[in-house]
Inverse folding.
């Protein structure tokens, strides 16, 4: 038994957007009780990330840290699309495009403190697409 | 054909804990000969990692490198749970929570020099849970 | 319905090698129209990465950035296999060994600007193996 959809999210600048609820709701609707969920972000300047869901300060520290590892002020060769474009590709490569999460009792088996986040790395507003696929029974 | 379990590991401070043997044993017991294995760490301050299995020096260099990229001494906004907490979230985001490995002949198809590691990033002892899921025939 | 193969790639030094075409061709040949594709790199000094497929400058910036995060000149404890060996393990840990991509209409559901790359981190020529596994119907 399989189901697949494309989830769409509006972003307004660099932040971690919590998509846990929408993902869990879709998994429940598919009727798959036990299986594997894959999420795949179809972009190279936004990415997927699992991190702590309790403290907004964690998210702010995470964004500042990504900004130090891949700073916007640096002299990149690829700069035609703006100073935030190449850093966005680097941050996406670091955090990754795909997540696979086991499903049990009809829900993604996240730990208590885990949330699923769409990490936006560009400043301009974007519409981001995440393919969700579940396989199981 | 599917099987799912939660593997539990005791950690005693920052290190790479080799879980290859326990994972391979569980896959064999499920009877799945050909398929996909997903491992998912249910924490945000410990993570999963595949790296070289031959040299302990590689693991020590890896931990020192993670410590340089996400140093404990820095002035993080999120510091209430101790100086090793925010760096642990950052190291987990960098290395990731989930691994998917093809299975053939009843075993994870790792390369000769690859081991599967639970990376602990906190100093205090912890009990860490890894959901293992295999699907195939 | 499942299919599995090992794809082999010759590398000649640090670069991002575009494997999108070969992967997509293999998926098409399996006859799986809808499902999950997993790619798994069986090495610890080469890795898999999804990034922008349009600009070679993005790839050069990406390699320079990896070189700054895990520089070859540093004093690593593990240095017996050459100055590029330990940095290669670090870069592989950062970018990761496995990718899972949903399949629809018989092809990996990549975004318009996404390519799948084998990232080689060693200087000497290597033959790299990537296990490809598809499950679906």
């Amino acid at each position: 038994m399989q189901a697949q959809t494309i989830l769409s999210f509006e972003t307004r600048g660099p932040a971690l957007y919590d998509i846990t609820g929408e993902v869990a709701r879709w998994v429940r609707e598919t009727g798959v009780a036990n299986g594997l969920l894959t999420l795949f972000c179809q972009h190279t300047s936004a990415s997927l990330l699992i991190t702590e869901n309790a403290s907004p300060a964690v998210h702010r520290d995470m964004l500042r840290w990504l900004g130090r590892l891949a700073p916007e002020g640096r002299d990149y060769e690829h700069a035609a699309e703006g100073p935030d474009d190449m850093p966005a590709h680097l941050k996406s490569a670091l955090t990754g495009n795909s997540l696979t999460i086991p499903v049990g009792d009809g829900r993604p088996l996240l730990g208590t403190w885990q949330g699923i986040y769409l990490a936006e790395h560009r400043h301009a507003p974007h519409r981001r697409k995440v393919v969700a696929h579940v396989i199981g029974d």
Notes: The radius of gyration of chain B is 16 Å. Residues 2-136 of chain B form a domain with the Jelly Rolls fold (CATH 2.60.120.460). Chain B has one domain: 2-136.
